[in-house]
Amino acid sequence: xxxxxxxxxxxxxxxxxxxxxxxxxxxxxxxxxxxxxxxxxxxxxxxxxxxxxxxxxxxxxxxxxxxxxxxxxxxxxxxxxxxxxxxxxxxxxxxxxxxxxxxxxxxxxxxxxxxxxxxxxxxxxxxxxxxxxxxxxxxxxxxxxxxxxxxxxxxxxxxxxxxxxxxxxxxxxxxxxxxxxxxxxxxxxxxxxxxxxxxxxxxxxxxxxxxxxxxxxxxxxxxxxxxxxxxxxxxxxxxxxxxxxxxxxxxxxxxxxxxxxxxxxxxxxxxxxxxxxxxxxxxxxxxxxxxxxxxxxxxxxxxxxxxxxxxxxxxxxxxxxxxxxxxxxxxxxxxxxxxxxxxxxxxxxxxxxxxxxxxxxxxxxxxxxxxxxxxxxxxxxxxxxxxxxxxxxxxxxxxxxxxxxxxxxxxxxxxxxxxxxxxxxxxxxxxxxxxxxxxxxxxxxxxxxxxxxxxxxxxxxxxxxxxxxxxxxxxxxxxxxxxxxxxxxxxxxxxxxxxxxxxxxxxxxxxxxxxxxxxxxxxxxxxxxxxxxxxxxxxxxxxxxxxxxxxxxxxxxxxxxxxxxxxxxxxxxxxxxxxxxxxxxxxxxxxxxxxxxxxxxxxxxxxxxxxxxxxxxxxxxxxxxxxxxxxxxxxxxxxxxxxxxxxxxxxxxxxxxxxxxxxxxxxxxxxxxxxxxxxxxxxxxxxxxxxxxxxxx
Length: 697
Description:
Elements lengths: L22 E7 L6 H11 L20 H6 L6 E7 L2 E7 L7 H10 L2 E7 L6 H12 L4 E6 L8 H12 L3 E3 L1 E3 L4 E3 L7 H16 L6 H6 L6 H13 L4 E5 L8 H11 L11 E2 L5 E2 L11 E10 L3 E10 L1 E2 L4 E6 L1 H5 L11 E6 L3 E5 L2 E4 L3 E2 L3 E5 L9 E4 L5 E2 L9 E7 L5 H14 L4 E4 L6 E5 L2 H15 L3 E4 L6 E4 L3 E9 L6 E11 L6 E5 L11 H14 L10 E9 L7 H17 L3 E15 L3 H10 L3 E7 L4 E9 L6 H9 L4 E11 L2 H6 L5
Parallel strand pairs: 1-3, 1-4, 4-5, 5-9, 6-9, 30-31
Antiparallel strand pairs: 2-3, 7-8, 10-11, 10-22, 12-13, 12-21, 13-20, 14-19, 15-16, 15-21, 17-18, 17-20, 23-25, 23-26, 24-25, 27-32, 28-29, 29-31, 32-34, 32-35, 33-34
Helix pairs in contact: 11-12, 13-14
């Protein structure tokens, strides 16, 4: 591609697009530490949006502007920075590379029409990045590979290209190679044998993707193919995601930035060339997809939500159709659970439909908001004062409400139990969690009715750390993390009898109730049975339900470790009453006392929840994972082939052994493994395992 000199001077003004055809939405993805954020700084300097590049070490980069990002020196959320090149507005979406923040990555891909895979020249390609490439391949997203950190002491451009080709496929081919203080474009360069060989590989790769079937014959016959023709075929192949150029960029010197911007502008598709996500009415009826037309009906999606105690809520929005203007009224639709069910993790706002008035409209440059007069179809903007909008919600015309099917989020699988540090933090904790849940669909907030704990289901320890840090610094909430309690059950190991006597006399009306019961265990899953065998009216008929009610109440509280009791039969055998002092309350109390005495006379067993687990891992790790599952008291049920040299291991594992499995599996598989879990049933807990629990805590 031709070498052009960028003369864009923005002088702090927000870049604006003439129409959807002059917009490119590009997500930068890849391993953590690959140089994505620094590359954006270099591109902003090259296009004169910035006068000098910021530093991650100093916390001065445009995209890593959150307090947690500055402190940790890594991206934890997606950020947007826009520039102009050759009259085209380029929206650069910086995404986190660490696996805990895959929700932000998915949101960035939803807002983008193409992706840059940023790989450091001193590192390889990790398994999560390989998986992400396959995910983009399934949806036909155009991609290019950028090799950064060329000035690193251990930089190996050729090795990085080989690693990328091995991970991503043979159609990943260098378009340029590093030279002396420059990059050499292979289509136009003539050089030594090594360059000539690379040039031949590139030309053959382009010709193989060409729609002109005679081109290969002409090339193999020794005919010189025109560079302009090759450029045209190259751009078409990139746009249709069948060819993936590799470009070297040195973020320190800026070498290679112009060539990269040229590929983005010339090769990557504009928003009208990218399909719109599935569209529905709020009632769930399928709606025909809308064209990317600024004059069409409004259709936009909230891809990120941030809340600030001082600024308020700000929504980052991708516009798919229509035009957004300040102060217009839009319809906000949130139907996350309608598409994915109540177990999907969205626990804060639920499904909702309402009209809201848009506040200020701006084009973000990291944390800085640059005022915008409008945002046309294909563009990405920030909207203020949408008080009910959450990440994943759809914005549409109030007279023609629409709903976009939200993107699929991974299930958070690491539970973190928290409690307010002080009584004064209780109300603030509820507000803080509600706002964090609206921002982050990968955070699931559970109020467990059995253990009475607040459990934050997170993607990993780093994700949990960011959530807790946000509670403390943004909302002033101090919390303590505590051990996660597993909702166990109690049952009886044998038959026993119990005597319940509740007699109190303190002047006036007293309390008098006596009952005798027999308890027996039932098969697992049978629940509770109450049998009345009272004869002769020893317990008046009106008080027999009271005994059952008291037994049930005591079962809910538990009789030993404080867990609910299940799978028992209680038979009421005998009792005594008083014509004046007997009451419903007295017989409820007697029933509970009788159950406690009976339970003390026999063995008490704990039942633990067991989950069905499916672990997806590379074939080479099957043995190690199966061994690890067995060490967790798991029963391996079998394996089945997965996609792309992977295997699914199916097993049943007690929940108590899965509390930290999200962390342990990542360490065991170097980030290549993933798993899903669902409740299967309750089973007796071995005494050795029960002894390790701090029951009743």
